[in-house]
Amino acid sequence: MTRHDGRAVNELRPVQIETNYLMHPEGSVLIQVGNTKVICNATIEDKVPGFLRGQGKGWITAEYSMLPRATADRTPRESTRGKVNGRTMEIQRLIGRALRAIVNLEALGEKTIWIDCDVIQADGGTRTASITGAFVALTLALAKKHGEKPFAKFPIIDYLAATSIGIVKDFGPVLDLCYVEDVAAAVDMNLVMTGAGRFVEIQGTGEEATFSREELNSLLCLGEKGINELISIQKEVLGDTANLIGSAKGESK
Amino acid sequence: MTRHDGRAVNELRPVQIETNYLMHPEGSVLIQVGNTKVICNATIEDKVPGFLRGQGKGWITAEYSMLPRATADRTPRESTRGKVNGRTMEIQRLIGRALRAIVNLEALGEKTIWIDCDVIQADGGTRTASITGAFVALTLALAKKHGEKPFAKFPIIDYLAATSIGIVKDFGPVLDLCYVEDVAAAVDMNLVMTGAGRFVEIQGTGEEATFSREELNSLLCLGEKGINELISIQKEVLGDTANLIGSAKGESK
Amino acid sequence: MTRHDGRAVNELRPVQIETNYLMHPEGSVLIQVGNTKVICNATIEDKVPGFLRGQGKGWITAEYSMLPRATADRTPRESTRGKVNGRTMEIQRLIGRALRAIVNLEALGEKTIWIDCDVIQADGGTRTASITGAFVALTLALAKKHGEKPFAKFPIIDYLAATSIGIVKDFGPVLDLCYVEDVAAAVDMNLVMTGAGRFVEIQGTGEEATFSREELNSLLCLGEKGINELISIQKEVLGDTANLIGSAKGESK
Amino acid sequence: MTRHDGRAVNELRPVQIETNYLMHPEGSVLIQVGNTKVICNATIEDKVPGFLRGQGKGWITAEYSMLPRATADRTPRESTRGKVNGRTMEIQRLIGRALRAIVNLEALGEKTIWIDCDVIQADGGTRTASITGAFVALTLALAKKHGEKPFAKFPIIDYLAATSIGIVKDFGPVLDLCYVEDVAAAVDMNLVMTGAGRFVEIQGTGEEATFSREELNSLLCLGEKGINELISIQKEVLGDTANLIGSAKGESK
Amino acid sequence: MTRHDGRAVNELRPVQIETNYLMHPEGSVLIQVGNTKVICNATIEDKVPGFLRGQGKGWITAEYSMLPRATADRTPRESTRGKVNGRTMEIQRLIGRALRAIVNLEALGEKTIWIDCDVIQADGGTRTASITGAFVALTLALAKKHGEKPFAKFPIIDYLAATSIGIVKDFGPVLDLCYVEDVAAAVDMNLVMTGAGRFVEIQGTGEEATFSREELNSLLCLGEKGINELISIQKEVLGDTANLIGSAKGESK
Amino acid sequence: MTRHDGRAVNELRPVQIETNYLMHPEGSVLIQVGNTKVICNATIEDKVPGFLRGQGKGWITAEYSMLPRATADRTPRESTRGKVNGRTMEIQRLIGRALRAIVNLEALGEKTIWIDCDVIQADGGTRTASITGAFVALTLALAKKHGEKPFAKFPIIDYLAATSIGIVKDFGPVLDLCYVEDVAAAVDMNLVMTGAGRFVEIQGTGEEATFSREELNSLLCLGEKGINELISIQKEVLGDTANLIGSAKGESK
């Protein structure tokens, strides 16, 4: 049985990552996962938040937003409403936490990396596309910095990508849900994994529903497959820069 | 190797649930999990939010807060700061979502249940204690309503409880982390499950760390054991009211 | 004529003060005045607000809040509404001002005492119960500090307690109004007095009503009687710590 | 011993009330009490707040503000800071409550009176000058309405004025404190009374100080004297309109 | 003397307008003016704001925002700061007002058009690029609506475009300032004009400087030239849709 | 054809400027332009905002507000609504920018001048009356400072005044619109000019309308005439202080 867009249940949507998308940021990427489009920018700031000052460690923090018409109906701006809603906060905390898992914060030194993920078009999976794209923007920013003044050790330890999986009526477990599938899913899971195949984050949620241990296992297998493919694409677009990742001395091997 | 408080790695802290704790709420509970103490109140309101109006369905929403001195250092009040922070939003969204998974919202009818979880003393695991306690407060509130004017079908389908598990240095996977263990954990997981042993929510996070599939499985086994024990305690404190849960006609069997 | 709960017009409700109620705060009390229950915590911070810096004086500030279901109907949280309302501000300003009247701020030194009064159940008189309980929490916190590193002079000069009085239809002046009496009162007064019988604060208000000089005098006599009884209870629960209050050298006599 | 501005301890500052000060409001007054100058405007709105709808009763609400340079140093605007502070809230609640005590809200009918008190120059006693001026603005507004469409019964029952009294070092109890005296006062009291000599509001506060029953009585006597004089001035500036106040049929006698 | 990017003083930067840029909005455009890039989306909502209800007229309102890294240094998000700043408000009011000048609001009927201008890359002239792009997005949205259910009269009366002009040291009056010129300009002017060559908005500002009547005239001439060129580009990208503009019956001629 | 208040199309309303209006501000003015009344105060603060620190330059910033009943209907306070609206922001940015154009900020030194314009009665032209009045308040404040400790060079370079002009149906271009004319105007323009006849700010806006080059020229001529008259009035009320303006050494000539 094929999905409404012709994909197999274990098939990702077409993914494109355009590097150096904008002129000002240190690292800038436009990632497209099917119809979902996110601009991911990385900014390097030479100071750390108060709670880290003087510890020789860096920090990574993320902000996430959607254009009002990223969605089918117009969503009022959070700036106009005067506050950031719970969903946005949840997503930006997730993005920051996920990236910190593959960065050696001591090697980074007393710097803050600001990750900005701005969804210009949404069709499901915006938070996972944000993580996958943000990883590339972050790597580009640090590689640029490394080119100017090399780190003793390049701070990025491993690859990082994310995808969604879910249990959809009539299909069972499926990989990389687009919006119509997401709305119909009884179980919704976001998975963040490293190049070494280790978990960084698992967030599985029954939406007025529950799931069994067997279903969980099927979802994790599908997710792992998708993430491997996403990491291959990241490697490709990074080209030589990819050699810096996980390198002992932060030099290309 | 025993933990700092003498527990085995697969042992819960002592749990107490005092029902009918406050006089005004329809359902009210004080739950203590070790030194963590949370007041959980359930309020029934005879209307639903705008997006559900006219659909014959109910809704469950939760709010979570901590007293400023629930913590070792004083935490400024969110009311004084003028906004609810991201961690609070994440937790209250989790509590509401978890409870909705075991409630038949059609059977509930056009009502909103407000769940208020107020942590008066915190020592790790406040969000999972909130869910475990809120389940009891919710059941009491609906049982009271049922006593006044019986539901055609009692809206609570199954039990629901939550616990935390994590990977702590020198101990590996452990159940029900108190605060000092939580701070030291490389992996932190919150698990919400039903009486039937199905998952409602899995949130596993590497804190500047990652974890393998095997570690995940160990964590899930520990969590399942803890949740079974918590559900036994819920049954006990609910007494006869427990018979209503999952009953076909919402009558005691 | 007896009141709806059987009390005489000059009779307080039963009062209980549980000391060391929570584990984290320097001073912690649960005060119950009839069905009104307030958690009062005192926190000592080793700095003062900007306007006092460098003057060798300390400061006392208070915050007050009610759980949403402290009341018969659920009151929306001030954190969710994004602002503290006028009634709350009025009360927290009153609590801070009252406590400052019986503390020698020079003897305290450059410290801020934060008083948190959180009403978990409300049945009238929450602001006066807060003051009466906060006095005990404050004394416990300073006594603990004094035990670690004695003050040259113990900063608490005298006892402090508060009660409400009012003029209620069919009863005239009555002491310690519970909620149903408070709603029915034409005149509502809050009185804060010291152990030496001096006034710290008188707030008398006609609610779409007025009152004469004679009525004022009756109210003050009732209030004085109630406050004397409250101070006896404070002395009792403080035990030996009570000896520190007003002591010349801050040592037990 | 004379005060720094040559007044006796029981002497008010010069008071001027200019009626019909601005062109748009239904009632508009500029009141000057010494150097304190407040614009008091009354607006009649043909609806009531939600909690009163359908009860045939009216409401009076007040807002209070100071120009940034009403004070010796510039005070930042509350609009710029994004919130109204506690002192402002306390004052506007007091003004509204005081006026409601001398208005028959049933006779008013389903109308809201908005009282705006804007201090353009401050030299102590701004809240009491606001009440004294607001009473005149309110009377003018209702008299104008009465002229267009007579009330069955004119809603204002009695006069209302307010003053401050305090205990100042070297002087003891004094009437109508200007700013330098207010800062130096150990006890600060605001008194609101009616034309019949009854109390509407007593707010007496020790500022890091306390006071005795005898001192209270002296303060009340001074305050009563001042309020009688203020009410004479109100009568004079109201002219014939004064006849409406307390009139059985709301017609001039 | 040529400008730093080789342009003559009366030369626009290269302009590109990509229509149907995003999939969800009724009208969507990416406009590039040199390095300035703005996404302009138009949303049609079938209701009007309260002040227009029942008058048979429509409304156009605009919101403007910049991605944090649209600029050389990262600008904190307005949603995070909790309020929209003055510059943003000024710009979005300008965009809305400008568009309303060339729309027949009666012909539009009781609809609101939301215009969202999101700057993804900024290099001067973001507000004028927003207006020029928004005009095209608006036209596309109304043309789409017209295709589904024709307007009695197509609501767009005339073309509308905007540019900036300024007086820059060493160059005098110049057209279409990029960021480095804008910063150096003594006089900064934004001009909005119609296809018929009439003014909609002139905003000329001395930045710690002033300007004469002759200088004003030079600036207006330059601006008029630029706007004519921008309108030619609009016509070209609109293709056949352009025929609807100003058409008597709203049908293509 | 005469205007509704009997003025010719090129005639200003009666203007009065009362200097030293309030006692606390360094410079204080009540300006009346017809029925429009604005209190303009200038405050000198001995520091500059962060972006100017250490540059030896001063700054001028303005805030603008209206009393709730400055208008025919009561306008809710911005402090109560918790935010400053777009119109207010636009106006206060305009006032600050205009004044900075005629002040030598280097000669001022590291000081901030706060200009507060509070409209107590509004009948059109409040922003231009604010600028005209604020210029006088600013001059008075700097002259006072100069009297205490002379500036090497008096910082005010030239006079500054502002007026409105517009195109009103049946009248064409008219000078100094009152409220009823402003509402009816198709084109609305605010003009700020110096004593030397140079432009500081031109803001011309079609309100759902447009205007030609010829109309623009007529408006500018009318505006110039009005501003010349306003500057004559400023000179007169400033008396000898006027000599300081534009003086080489900041001494009276």
From TrEMBL, chains A, B, C, D, E, F:
The record, for Pfam families, names: RNase_PH, RNase_PH_C
- Tell me yes or no: is Nucleotidyltransferase among this UniProt entry's keywords: yes
* Residues noted as binding phosphate in the record, renumbered to the chain: R87, G125, T126, R127
Give the molecular function GO annotations.
Answer: 3'-5'-RNA exonuclease activity; tRNA binding; tRNA nucleotidyltransferase activity
- Annotated EC: 2.7.7.56
rRNA processing as a keyword of this entry, yes or no, is yes
**Which reaction is this enzyme known to catalyze?**
tRNA(n+1) + phosphate = tRNA(n) + a ribonucleoside 5'-diphosphate
**GO process annotations (BP):** rRNA 3'-end processing; rRNA catabolic process; tRNA processing
What InterPro entries does this protein's entry cite?
ExoRNase_PH_dom1, ExoRNase_PH_dom2, ExoRNase_PH_dom2_sf, PNPase/RNase_PH_dom_sf, Ribosomal_Su5_D2-typ_SF, RNase_PH, RNase_PH_bac-type, RNase_PH_CS
Q: Which residues form the Exoribonuclease phosphorolytic domain?
A: 11-141, 158-225
Q: Which residues cross the membrane?
A: none
Job of this protein = Phosphorolytic 3'-5' exoribonuclease that plays an important role in tRNA 3'-end maturation. Removes nucleotide residues following the 3'-CCA terminus of tRNAs; can also add nucleotides to the ends of RNA molecules by using nucleoside diphosphates as substrates, but this may not be physiologically important. Probably plays a role in initiation of 16S rRNA degradation (leading to ribosome degradation) during starvation.
Family in the record: Belongs to the RNase PH family.
UniProt subunit comment: Homohexameric ring arranged as a trimer of dimers.
Name the record gives this protein: Ribonuclease PH
Q: Which gene encodes it?
A: rph
